[in-house]
Design a protein that fits this description.
seven-stranded mixed beta sheet, globular, three-stranded antiparallel beta sheet, alpha+beta
Protein backbone atom coordinates (compact mmCIF):
# COMPACT_ATOMS: atom_id res chain seq x y z
CA UNK A 1 0.00 0.00 0.00
CA UNK A 2 1.65 3.21 -1.21
CA UNK A 3 0.28 6.04 0.91
CA UNK A 4 2.19 8.83 -0.78
CA UNK A 5 1.83 8.15 -4.50
CA UNK A 6 -0.98 10.58 -5.44
CA UNK A 7 -4.11 8.82 -6.65
CA UNK A 8 -6.33 11.89 -6.87
CA UNK A 9 -5.79 15.34 -8.46
CA UNK A 10 -3.77 17.80 -6.40
CA UNK A 11 -6.81 20.03 -5.90
CA UNK A 12 -8.46 17.20 -3.94
CA UNK A 13 -5.55 16.69 -1.53
CA UNK A 14 -6.28 17.32 2.11
CA UNK A 15 -4.09 20.16 3.46
CA UNK A 16 -2.34 17.77 5.86
CA UNK A 17 -1.49 15.35 3.05
CA UNK A 18 -0.44 18.22 0.80
CA UNK A 19 1.90 19.43 3.53
CA UNK A 20 3.48 15.97 3.80
CA UNK A 21 4.22 15.96 0.08
CA UNK A 22 5.49 19.53 -0.02
CA UNK A 23 7.72 19.08 3.02
CA UNK A 24 9.07 15.82 1.66
CA UNK A 25 10.53 14.81 5.01
CA UNK A 26 11.57 11.20 4.55
CA UNK A 27 11.89 10.64 8.31
CA UNK A 28 8.22 11.54 8.76
CA UNK A 29 7.14 9.33 5.87
CA UNK A 30 9.15 6.44 7.30
CA UNK A 31 7.14 6.54 10.54
CA UNK A 32 3.81 6.56 8.72
CA UNK A 33 4.92 3.74 6.43
CA UNK A 34 5.94 1.74 9.50
CA UNK A 35 2.51 2.32 11.05
CA UNK A 36 0.92 1.10 7.83
CA UNK A 37 2.85 -2.18 7.62
CA UNK A 38 0.45 -5.08 7.97
CA UNK A 39 -2.59 -2.87 7.44
CA UNK A 40 -4.91 -4.23 4.73
CA UNK A 41 -6.94 -1.90 2.50
CA UNK A 42 -10.04 -4.08 2.49
CA UNK A 43 -12.27 -1.95 0.28
CA UNK A 44 -9.59 -0.37 -1.93
CA UNK A 45 -10.44 3.16 -0.75
CA UNK A 46 -8.03 3.71 2.11
CA UNK A 47 -5.27 5.49 0.18
CA UNK A 48 -7.81 7.78 -1.49
CA UNK A 49 -9.33 8.65 1.87
CA UNK A 50 -5.88 9.19 3.40
CA UNK A 51 -5.07 11.68 0.67
CA UNK A 52 -8.44 13.47 0.61
CA UNK A 53 -9.83 13.39 4.17
CA UNK A 54 -6.68 12.34 6.06
CA UNK A 55 -7.55 12.48 9.77
CA UNK A 56 -9.69 9.36 10.16
CA UNK A 57 -7.19 7.36 8.08
CA UNK A 58 -4.29 8.75 10.11
CA UNK A 59 -6.03 7.62 13.31
CA UNK A 60 -6.50 4.11 11.90
CA UNK A 61 -2.80 3.93 11.01
CA UNK A 62 -1.89 4.92 14.55
CA UNK A 63 -4.24 2.29 16.00
CA UNK A 64 -2.74 -0.32 13.69
CA UNK A 65 0.70 0.53 15.07
CA UNK A 66 -0.62 0.35 18.65
CA UNK A 67 -2.12 -3.09 18.11
CA UNK A 68 1.15 -4.29 16.57
CA UNK A 69 2.98 -2.93 19.60
CA UNK A 70 0.73 -4.99 21.87
CA UNK A 71 1.13 -8.07 19.68
CA UNK A 72 -2.59 -8.18 18.85
CA UNK A 73 -3.05 -9.63 15.34
CA UNK A 74 -5.91 -8.14 13.33
CA UNK A 75 -8.15 -10.33 11.18
CA UNK A 76 -8.54 -8.20 8.05
CA UNK A 77 -10.67 -10.84 6.33
CA UNK A 78 -13.65 -9.40 8.19
CA UNK A 79 -15.09 -6.36 6.43
CA UNK A 80 -16.19 -4.68 9.66
CA UNK A 81 -15.64 -3.38 12.31
CA UNK A 82 -12.31 -1.70 11.63
CA UNK A 83 -10.15 -3.99 13.80
CA UNK A 84 -11.28 -7.54 14.49
CA UNK A 85 -9.13 -9.30 17.10
CA UNK A 86 -10.39 -12.88 17.33
CA UNK A 87 -7.35 -14.14 19.24
CA UNK A 88 -8.08 -11.56 21.96
CA UNK A 89 -11.86 -11.94 21.77
CA UNK A 90 -12.93 -8.36 21.04
CA UNK A 91 -13.42 -5.81 18.26
CA UNK A 92 -12.53 -2.13 17.79
CA UNK A 93 -14.32 0.48 15.71
CA UNK A 94 -12.35 3.65 14.97
CA UNK A 95 -13.81 7.12 14.62
CA UNK A 96 -12.78 10.77 14.93
CA UNK A 97 -14.58 13.90 16.05
CA UNK A 98 -14.43 16.31 13.12
CA UNK A 99 -15.36 19.98 12.89
CA UNK A 100 -18.94 21.08 12.47
CA UNK A 101 -19.92 22.12 8.97
CA UNK A 102 -19.84 25.84 9.74
CA UNK A 103 -16.67 25.89 11.87
CA UNK A 104 -12.95 26.02 11.18
CA UNK A 105 -11.28 22.65 10.54
CA UNK A 106 -8.40 21.27 12.56
CA UNK A 107 -5.74 22.20 9.99
CA UNK A 108 -6.71 25.91 9.87
CA UNK A 109 -4.25 26.96 12.58
CA UNK A 110 -1.91 29.17 10.58
CA UNK A 111 -2.15 32.77 11.76
CA UNK A 112 -4.57 31.92 14.58
CA UNK A 113 -3.91 32.31 18.29
CA UNK A 114 -4.56 29.43 20.70
CA UNK A 115 -8.06 29.40 22.21
CA UNK A 116 -8.48 32.25 24.73
CA UNK A 117 -11.23 30.45 26.67
CA UNK A 118 -10.66 26.79 27.54
CA UNK A 119 -14.29 26.27 28.54
CA UNK A 120 -15.57 27.38 25.12
CA UNK A 121 -12.85 25.31 23.44
CA UNK A 122 -13.69 22.25 25.52
CA UNK A 123 -17.43 22.64 24.97
CA UNK A 124 -17.04 22.33 21.21
CA UNK A 125 -14.92 19.19 21.56
CA UNK A 126 -17.35 17.70 24.09
CA UNK A 127 -20.22 18.14 21.63
CA UNK A 128 -18.28 16.73 18.69
CA UNK A 129 -16.93 13.74 20.65
CA UNK A 130 -20.41 13.00 21.99
CA UNK A 131 -21.90 13.14 18.49
CA UNK A 132 -19.26 10.77 17.09
CA UNK A 133 -19.67 8.24 19.89
CA UNK A 134 -23.44 8.32 19.59
CA UNK A 135 -23.16 7.70 15.84
CA UNK A 136 -20.91 4.68 16.38
CA UNK A 137 -23.24 3.35 19.05
CA UNK A 138 -26.13 3.50 16.58
CA UNK A 139 -23.91 1.85 13.95
CA UNK A 140 -23.20 -0.98 16.35
CA UNK A 141 -26.88 -1.58 17.04
CA UNK A 142 -27.92 -1.33 13.38
CA UNK A 143 -25.02 -3.04 11.63
CA UNK A 144 -22.47 -4.78 13.84
CA UNK A 145 -24.32 -6.41 16.72
CA UNK A 146 -25.68 -9.29 14.66
CA UNK A 147 -22.33 -10.29 13.13
CA UNK A 148 -21.08 -13.65 14.39
CA UNK A 149 -17.60 -12.33 15.17
CA UNK A 150 -19.03 -9.31 17.07
CA UNK A 151 -22.00 -10.61 19.03
CA UNK A 152 -21.28 -11.76 22.59
CA UNK A 153 -17.85 -10.11 22.53
CA UNK A 154 -16.56 -6.82 23.95
CA UNK A 155 -16.97 -3.90 21.54
CA UNK A 156 -14.53 -0.99 21.84
CA UNK A 157 -14.71 2.45 20.22
CA UNK A 158 -11.37 4.18 19.57
CA UNK A 159 -11.82 7.91 19.18
CA UNK A 160 -9.80 11.09 18.97
CA UNK A 161 -10.66 14.69 18.21
CA UNK A 162 -9.77 16.68 15.10
CA UNK A 163 -12.71 19.01 15.60
CA UNK A 164 -11.10 22.47 15.59
CA UNK A 165 -7.75 24.28 15.31
CA UNK A 166 -5.47 23.39 18.23
CA UNK A 167 -7.51 20.26 18.90
CA UNK A 168 -4.27 18.65 20.11
CA UNK A 169 -4.64 20.77 23.27
CA UNK A 170 -7.54 18.55 24.35
CA UNK A 171 -5.76 16.45 26.98
CA UNK A 172 -8.44 14.41 28.79
CA UNK A 173 -10.93 17.04 29.92
CA UNK A 174 -13.46 16.59 27.11
CA UNK A 175 -13.50 12.79 26.87
CA UNK A 176 -13.91 12.45 30.64
CA UNK A 177 -16.87 14.83 30.55
CA UNK A 178 -18.45 12.77 27.76
CA UNK A 179 -17.89 9.37 29.36
CA UNK A 180 -17.83 10.03 33.09
CA UNK A 181 -19.70 13.33 33.46
CA UNK A 182 -16.60 14.77 35.11
CA UNK A 183 -15.26 18.20 34.16
CA UNK A 184 -12.45 20.40 35.47
CA UNK A 185 -12.98 24.14 35.04
CA UNK A 186 -9.40 25.30 34.59
CA UNK A 187 -10.51 28.81 33.62
CA UNK A 188 -12.08 29.32 37.05
CA UNK A 189 -9.01 27.89 38.78
CA UNK A 190 -6.70 30.18 36.81
CA UNK A 191 -8.87 33.25 37.40
CA UNK A 192 -8.71 32.68 41.17
CA UNK A 193 -4.92 32.10 41.07
CA UNK A 194 -5.55 28.75 42.74
CA UNK A 195 -7.23 30.28 45.78
CA UNK A 196 -10.17 27.89 45.46
CA UNK A 197 -7.96 25.00 46.50
CA UNK A 198 -6.75 22.06 44.43
CA UNK A 199 -7.59 21.74 40.77
CA UNK A 200 -10.58 19.42 41.08
CA UNK A 201 -13.50 18.51 38.88
CA UNK A 202 -17.25 18.57 39.25
CA UNK A 203 -20.20 16.66 37.87
CA UNK A 204 -21.33 17.74 34.41
CA UNK A 205 -24.10 15.61 32.94
CA UNK A 206 -25.51 17.92 30.27
CA UNK A 207 -24.33 20.62 27.85
CA UNK A 208 -26.21 22.59 25.22
CA UNK A 209 -25.57 23.28 21.57
CA UNK A 210 -25.77 26.81 20.21
CA UNK A 211 -29.38 26.13 19.16
CA UNK A 212 -30.29 25.13 22.71
CA UNK A 213 -30.47 21.38 22.06
CA UNK A 214 -29.28 19.41 25.10
CA UNK A 215 -26.59 16.74 24.96
CA UNK A 216 -26.44 14.18 27.75
CA UNK A 217 -22.99 13.40 29.12
CA UNK A 218 -21.72 10.69 31.42
CA UNK A 219 -22.31 7.91 28.92
CA UNK A 220 -20.61 5.41 31.23
CA UNK A 221 -22.53 6.49 34.37
CA UNK A 222 -25.69 4.57 33.43
CA UNK A 223 -26.42 1.32 31.54
CA UNK A 224 -27.54 3.30 28.47
CA UNK A 225 -24.35 2.54 26.51
CA UNK A 226 -23.74 -0.92 27.95
CA UNK A 227 -22.96 -2.34 24.49
CA UNK A 228 -19.76 -0.25 24.37
CA UNK A 229 -17.28 -2.06 26.59
CA UNK A 230 -14.57 0.59 26.56
CA UNK A 231 -13.35 3.71 24.80
CA UNK A 232 -9.77 4.22 23.68
CA UNK A 233 -8.69 7.86 23.38
CA UNK A 234 -5.54 9.83 22.71
CA UNK A 235 -5.13 13.57 22.32
CA UNK A 236 -1.46 13.02 21.44
CA UNK A 237 -1.90 10.78 18.37
CA UNK A 238 -1.23 13.42 15.75
CA UNK A 239 1.61 14.62 13.55
CA UNK A 240 3.49 15.65 16.69
CA UNK A 241 3.61 11.96 17.59
CA UNK A 242 5.05 11.15 14.17
CA UNK A 243 7.73 13.80 14.54
CA UNK A 244 8.58 12.67 18.06
CA UNK A 245 9.12 9.09 16.87
CA UNK A 246 11.04 9.99 13.73
CA UNK A 247 14.82 9.94 13.36
CA UNK A 248 14.87 13.47 11.99
CA UNK A 249 18.28 14.99 12.97
CA UNK A 250 17.29 18.54 12.01
CA UNK A 251 18.22 21.31 14.42
CA UNK A 252 15.58 23.74 15.59
CA UNK A 253 12.89 21.12 16.41
CA UNK A 254 11.68 21.82 19.95
CA UNK A 255 9.08 19.84 21.89
CA UNK A 256 7.00 21.06 24.81
CA UNK A 257 5.31 18.34 26.83
CA UNK A 258 3.16 18.25 29.94
CA UNK A 259 3.50 15.07 31.97
CA UNK A 260 1.52 13.92 34.99
CA UNK A 261 2.67 15.13 38.38
CA UNK A 262 0.44 13.40 40.98
CA UNK A 263 1.94 15.46 43.81
CA UNK A 264 0.83 18.80 42.43
CA UNK A 265 -1.81 20.67 40.45
CA UNK A 266 0.98 21.65 38.10
CA UNK A 267 2.24 19.05 35.62
CA UNK A 268 5.86 18.42 34.84
CA UNK A 269 6.75 20.78 31.99
CA UNK A 270 9.39 19.52 29.59
CA UNK A 271 10.98 21.60 26.86
CA UNK A 272 13.67 19.91 24.84
CA UNK A 273 15.23 19.84 21.42
CA UNK A 274 14.50 16.77 19.31
CA UNK A 275 17.86 15.15 20.10
CA UNK A 276 17.07 15.12 23.83
CA UNK A 277 13.31 14.61 23.75
CA UNK A 278 11.83 11.16 24.54
CA UNK A 279 8.35 9.87 23.69
CA UNK A 280 7.08 6.40 22.82
CA UNK A 281 4.20 5.20 20.65
CA UNK A 282 1.85 4.55 23.60
CA UNK A 283 2.52 7.82 25.42
CA UNK A 284 -0.79 9.68 25.77
CA UNK A 285 -3.00 6.64 25.22
CA UNK A 286 -6.01 6.40 27.56
CA UNK A 287 -8.53 3.57 28.00
CA UNK A 288 -11.86 4.10 29.77
CA UNK A 289 -13.88 1.01 30.70
CA UNK A 290 -17.65 0.97 30.97
CA UNK A 291 -18.70 -0.37 34.42
CA UNK A 292 -22.11 -1.30 32.94
CA UNK A 293 -20.69 -3.18 29.94
CA UNK A 294 -22.69 -6.21 28.86
CA UNK A 295 -19.40 -7.79 27.75
CA UNK A 296 -16.59 -6.33 29.90
CA UNK A 297 -13.10 -5.94 28.49
CA UNK A 298 -10.18 -7.16 30.58
CA UNK A 299 -7.97 -4.17 31.58
CA UNK A 300 -4.91 -6.45 31.43
CA UNK A 301 -5.08 -6.35 27.63
CA UNK A 302 -3.94 -2.71 27.43
CA UNK A 303 -2.00 -2.45 30.68
CA UNK A 304 1.27 -0.58 30.12
CA UNK A 305 3.29 1.94 32.16
CA UNK A 306 2.66 4.65 29.56
CA UNK A 307 -1.10 4.05 29.32
CA UNK A 308 -3.76 5.59 31.57
CA UNK A 309 -6.65 3.25 32.43
CA UNK A 310 -9.89 3.85 34.33
CA UNK A 311 -12.13 0.95 35.41
CA UNK A 312 -14.50 -0.14 38.19
CA UNK A 313 -13.38 -3.01 40.38
CA UNK A 314 -14.48 -4.41 43.75
CA UNK A 315 -16.91 -1.55 44.33
CA UNK A 316 -14.54 1.30 43.56
CA UNK A 317 -12.90 3.14 40.68
CA UNK A 318 -9.33 2.23 39.82
CA UNK A 319 -7.10 4.71 38.01
CA UNK A 320 -3.96 3.20 36.57
CA UNK A 321 -1.57 6.06 36.11
CA UNK A 322 2.00 6.87 36.98
CA UNK A 323 4.12 9.94 37.33
CA UNK A 324 5.29 11.19 33.97
CA UNK A 325 2.42 9.93 31.83
CA UNK A 326 2.03 12.19 28.79
CA UNK A 327 -0.89 14.63 28.90
CA UNK A 328 -0.05 17.05 26.10
CA UNK A 329 2.69 17.73 23.60
CA UNK A 330 3.38 20.37 20.97
CA UNK A 331 6.26 20.81 18.56
CA UNK A 332 7.78 23.85 16.96
CA UNK A 333 10.32 24.01 14.16
CA UNK A 334 12.59 26.92 13.44
CA UNK A 335 13.25 27.13 9.70
CA UNK A 336 16.64 28.46 8.71
CA UNK A 337 16.69 30.48 5.53
CA UNK A 338 19.74 31.43 3.54
CA UNK A 339 20.00 35.13 2.76
CA UNK A 340 22.27 36.69 0.15
Amino acid sequence: MNLFEPVVPTAQHHPNFRNLLQTGNGFTLDVLNDWARGFVDRDGKFVTEFQTTFNSSFWELYLNAVLKKYGMPVDFTKARPDFCLPSKGFNIEATVASNAQDSFPEHARLGKAPPPDLNAFNLQSIIRLSNSLAAKYRKYLESYAMLDHVSDRPFVVAITNFDQPFSYMACQRQIEAVLQGYYVDEERYTASNGREGRLEGETLLKVFKDNGSPIDLGLFTTPAYREISAVIFSGCANMGKVRALSSDPSVGIVFTALRLNPASDQPHIIRAQKQRYEENLLDGLRVYYNPYATHPLNPALFRHPSVFQSFYESGDWVYEQREGQLLYRSVQTAIQRNHP
